[in-house]
Design goal:
This protein is of the alpha+beta class and 129 residues long. It has one domain (2-122): Roll (Thiol Ester Dehydrase, Chain A), CATH 3.10.129.10. It has two helices and six strands; from the N terminus they run βαβββββα. Strands 1, 2, 3, 4, 5 and 6 form a six-stranded antiparallel beta sheet that branches. The model has no long low-confidence stretch (mean pLDDT 94).
Length: 129
């Protein structure tokens, strides 16, 4: 798992329990994974197709710093799949785990289209796949 970005938990990111609002975290994950899919598929025309079960393991509080990790899982004809883990930078405790995030390349009518990429052309090695 490679960790690509960090976020500082601020007052506007909190829920009524004064812990990190899950919706804010999911927004950050979707954005980070979407950008990663765009860079690997060489296209801005990428959309989220599927997010598997989301496991909220631990909470984060104001002032915590979290980092978002992504790991390549699979490549399809029109799609690319990652797993995700978010952890606290200082305690290393897992905040959230998602087994599968699927992104699809689309055309101007939002229909899936082949991306014509392979593990090799995206630069994945056996250790990453």
């Amino acid at each position: 798992m490679k960790f690509y970005s960090r976020k500082l938990i601020k007052p506007g990111d909190l829920n009524a329990n004064n812990t990190l609002f899950g919706g804010a975290l999911l927004k950050w994950i979707d954005e980070e994974a979407g950008i990663y899919a765009m860079t690997k598929l060489d296209s801005k025309q990428v959309v989220t197709k599927f997010i598997s079960e989301i496991d909220f393991v631990n909470s984060a509080k104001q002032g915590d710093v979290i980092e978002i990790g992504l790991e390549y899982q699979a490549i399809g004809r029109t799609s690319i799949t990652f797993s995700c883990m978010v952890r606290n930078v200082f305690t290393q405790k897992t905040i959230i785990a998602i087994e599968k995030l699927v992104f699809v390349k689309i055309d101007s009518q939002e229909n899936p289209i082949p991306h014509e990429k392979t593990e090799e052309t995206m630069g994945f090695t056996k250790q990453e796949s």
